[in-house]
Specification:
two-stranded antiparallel sheet, 640 residues, two-stranded antiparallel ribbon
Length: 640
Amino acid sequence: MSFSGLLVQLLGGLAGASSLFLVAAGLSLIFGVCRIVNFAHGSFYMVGLYAAYAIAEALLPLATWGEGWAFWLSIPLAALGVGMLGAVVEVLLLRRIYKAPELFQLLATFALVLVIKDAVLWLCGPDELLGPRAPGLGGAVDILGRAFPSYDLFLIAAGPLVLGATWLLLHKTRFGMLVRAATQDREMVGALGVRQAWLFTAVFALGAALAGLGGALQLPREPATLELDLQTIGSAFVVVVVGGMGSLTGAFVAALLVSVVKAVCVWLGVVQIAGVDVAFPQLTLMVDFLVMAVVLVVRPWGLFGKPQAASRTQGLREQPLHPLQPAFWAAGGVLLLGLLALPWVVGADSYTLVLLVDLLIAALFAASLHFLMGPAGLYSFGHAAYFGLGAYGAALLLSALHLPMELALLLAPLAAAAGGLLFGWFAVRLTGVYFSMLTLAFAQITWATTFQWDSVTGGSNGLTGVWPAAWLEDKRWFYLLTLALVTAGVLWLWRVLYAPLGYALRAGRDSPLRAEAIGIPVAKVQWLGFVLASGVAGLAGALFAFSKGSISPETMSVAKSVDGLVMVLLGGVQTLVGPVVGAFSFTWLHDALARNTDYWRAALGGVILLLVLIFPQGIAGYAAQWSAWWKARGEARLPR
């Protein structure tokens, strides 16, 4: 642990901070003005890197004036191309759904992630692509006896230069004045006669171009891979939230802070603390989320952020929960009888049984998330953590403590509920997107711990041999057990919604100040709801572990949490059956497309985009609206 080693690590962290700042700056601008949680922003970063590689390769044979021009020209051209792509996305897609609930637009941007990933796969192939070295900056400089890449010094300077240019654009031009005004109160900007549509397009294009520039600048440093999109968006969210939504200065400081903390962890190496060896380099997988969690708990609006002004626009009104009609129960009974008889129709070895088990587990997971998102109004971005805690709890109870499978299945939800009890205590003290980001941080911390705790969780390899009891070896009996537990879990959640706790949750969602005034402890009620939803998600995770016979850290990754969000939003967040419909639709589409085409992500994303445009309230929400319209039409025809 020498000083020269620390200095080199810090400089390397500053170089990485520049590109991270560019991505986060674009994301912050887009959220500040357009109010979109843009999951596709990491895809713009990935496209920028691929585009810079393709442009440099295309210009190289034409660069008779020198190879350096081909490289340096590819970077701004890639950023410009990504900016144009962002403008097209905003005009053709996002402009059509601005009146939908803000977080419903998350579904559209997630679909874009799938489409863009397969488009890049089709155009560039699956192999990693490493670009050329930067002409004139391909060597290294000596810093206290250690070699440091010259290009990294260029990147260290690039970040402040872009920050300065962006600051001048936002503070010295009319466009910048409008952007800053829209960040504070976009409805007032529209009331003053500004054409919001074109302002949103310009801001989205600028944000996408900054992400593309961040990716293009990485051309000599890292290979272009298809996994960069989700890897980048997580770090960008951290920087934006830590710095404060809408603050470019905050994004820059947060990028420096996160990068420096990671560099120090790498420099420290393995340190013995109280007789225990602590490998600080392994903390780099979660240290950025630890920073975000600490900042959100201490200062919920970020280092440079401010509480956001309330929106004057009215989204979709939350309808009261009415008792389910007898016709619904009759249809549900018929469906349940059909599901009970199905195993003996298709046979014990049919793939249909395997798929149905996956559908049922997905329905229970989505129902637990809907319990938070709909009645409680809490949008969790890290719900997969509790799914994974339940799965690992069942696996460890079976393999480490040698408990019977039945007892492990019953106790596993308690592990997930314990995680919800701990994390929920901090999370429910925040609201809006800050609550969402804190749940994401806790989920990533849980994932990183699981990924690296080899002696207990098996690390990246996970745990195997998690098989059900002997009497469940026949897949039909395990299917029936899954059907019984999933049905009981969904019905129990519905029952809670009609109990005093459910009414208190909806009161805290609709009017927290009024609820507090009449004596409802909103934070405690939401905390209890968080714990209940976590326990049900843990039951789904335990069933998943026994259905697959193994478990790995991927079950609690960001992608799994996003899948849950997609299921709920696809089905309809304002209906009780929405999560079940969304889970069945999404899981079935995923399976059917993956088995029939190599580009299943693009096909799935295209289907989701169509559903977003046609059914902005979700499948079940649209069906409920259509049913109400048909009923009203029939009543209007009755003689009076």
